[in-house]
Amino acid sequence: MYANLTQQAVCERSGLGRATVQEIEAGRAAPTVDTVLLLADAIGIPPGELFE
Known about the structure:
The protein is built from 3 helices and no strands. By secondary structure, it is mostly helical.
């Protein structure tokens, strides 16, 4: 993950469930725009960087 954050830290910062983050990270689920924004904010990066 970016910024040396654990999945748990990203979940806590974003308010998303761990299963949701795991599914997105594994490519088994596509995040909504709102979820992308929450993840980017939690990680501290612009949303577009999640797709690089």
